[in-house]
Predict the 3D structure of the following.
Amino acid sequence: MKQIMIIALALTVSSGYARGITDQDTLYKNKKVPIPARVEDLLKRMTLKEKVLQLQNRGAGKTEEIERIFNGESFGCTHEMGMNAQDCADMYQQLQTYMLKKTRLGIPVLTAVEGIEGILQNNCTIFPHELAQGSTFNPTLIRKMTTAAGEEAQVIGIHQILSPVLDIARELRWGRVEETFGEDPYLISEMGTAFIKGYQSFNITCTPKHFVAHGSPAGGLNCANVSGGERDMRSLYLYPFAKVIANTDPLSVMSCYSSYDGVAVSGSRYYMTDVLRGELGFKGYVYSDWGSVERLQSFHHAVDSREQAAIKSLIAGVDLDVDGAYEATLQRSVETGLLDIKYIDNAVRRVLTVKFKLGLFDNPFGDPARVSKVVRNAEHVAIAKMVADESAILLKNDSNILPLDISKYKSIAVVGPNADQTVFGDYSWTGGDTKEGTTLLQGLKEAIGNKVTLNYTQGCDWWSKDKSGIADAVKNVTSSDLAIVAIGTRSTFLGRSPKYSTAGEGFDLSSLELPGSQQELLEAVKATGKPFIVVFIAGKPLAMPWVKENANAVLVQWYGGEKQGSTLADILTGVVNPSGRLNVSFPRSTGNTPIYYNHFVTDRNEPFDRPGSPEDPKGHYIFDRPDPLWAFGTGMSFTTFKYLDCKVADSVLTGKDIIKIDVDVKNTGDRDGKEVIQVYVHDMVSSVATPVQQLKAFKKELIKKGQTLKVHLEIPVSELGLYNERMKYIVESGEFELQIGSAADNIHFTKKIQVK
């Protein structure tokens, strides 16, 4: 039927020409004509060069530079990284007018931008980074966030968001952990789906990335090979992409730099076409990561020339090149017979189809007049604060020192390298001073006012071994009643201020110990005998067993956007009740990694499990334990919750059924709070190795003090499947254990079901 429709559309195009359709009535300009017919009509009018340019990104400049940069030619995609929102909106308005009126065929250009923590253009709202989004465990809130960001993109005139990242954070040395939703494929797929649907409220496509298996590089080095077999690829790395594509039907996907099991993915037709399009059903176009095409030659050495890199990538299924190889080589490749033009035509069809689906041929414009009313308005900043509030994770609270009873303190020392610096993640595109955000110190001043004296000393920086400031910090703490010590990492501001970064893209760590002299600062504060609270502001977990053992309280904030300081102050003073949960497990040491919770049964503890020693190893690390310092799903509240009862509707099910679970949870504390109810599954006996537990359902619920809430969760039995020895996905019959709890290592109920 589909082939018949395409033939009929082609005949419609032909008959139109036979009737002598004028240029004014050109099919591709008629929005009443079906998109496939519009695409074919336009494609047959294009020269080879015009086709190649549709497969290329061309960076935009200032409004007065449009003619010089584009020279009467339309490109597939453009981007801008230096302007504020208003100037960019004005420029895009003129650029699209230029494309429609000053190029031969009037083809609009896709305007793309990074949008992982809000729109990259200066002055846009800076929301919490993706890792913080994941720790909210609240997909509904993240959809609200990206709806706000999408509104900002719309008025600027942006149509493609180069996010979200669907990589799995299993290698903590990797600098880009902060760009992920966490270590769990199911959580990633749920958060990624919500993220994309928010942006899709407008004529915008997201670009899930990095397809595929990019986030677990060898040695934690960015872009390094990812090791694994076909089962890991299908069970783990493809899972979030498969779910997100099925749930949201995105119009673009970004390829990756890395190789999987030695195969450079951006040059692999198996991955980019057979799997992505054939198996996952992706219908849009593939956008290369920056330079990933040329890296087939320069990095992977899979080909011996730039031209061959372009040919191999195009045939593999990468449709649009961001860096220049396609524009420089593909026309010659066709003219010399090295490349069949059908591959160019197929890629151009995909790019043009996206432009038509987004309505760009009919209205590619933003709304510059509304930029000042929409971008970074009070409502959007408030949403950024909501996300920050729900993302912060309380990991320790000895003697309920938090929230602080301000009446007990005359002075509080605020020390540490992250105490008076708003720390944004990579792709926030801010200046080094990060004045756009609120620091912890500023937030405390706003929250406490003149009630308590705040004494600030940095103590040390975040990266060097310089200890010269620690003595002043000790004096400060000694003369104060309590210390708040803000430590962690700093991320690059991408192309603007990369010096001394300890996290972010291209900033990987060989050690997961606290960088610089931060550990020495902590030990010096401890030696004063004063109580101290550690606020860990970072882009990933680090190895901090000393902190867990010695601090009176530990509060974690993955980069919390422009309101992070206000959030932290509100939690410390009790205005906000923390509800974030760990989406990445904390290691005990660098050698304790990888430390993800969903390991195989055989891969952490021996059956005769207990800690070992050099004299009596017991099958463990002889100087350490193999379990995490803080496990996935962990997070405390200022109230308490009791899991009263759990019922599973049916204990015997088939592969077509849905597991229905009801959990009664009571707030037994003295204030309202949000609890994250989590359901993990363990296949008790399986033909191939399966994880000891896998998250398969969760809900975040507000439960008022003293009240009991019945929480309903569902899991399709089809989610319990595995790829068997012959790499076929099946749900095996047998017994499965449902683990219902508040963290991967804090299970309150276990229930058994049988699948027949």
Q: What stands out?
A: The first strand starts at residue 77 and ends at 79. Residues 169 and 183 are 4 Å apart (CA to CA). Residues 230-248 form the longest helix (19 residues).
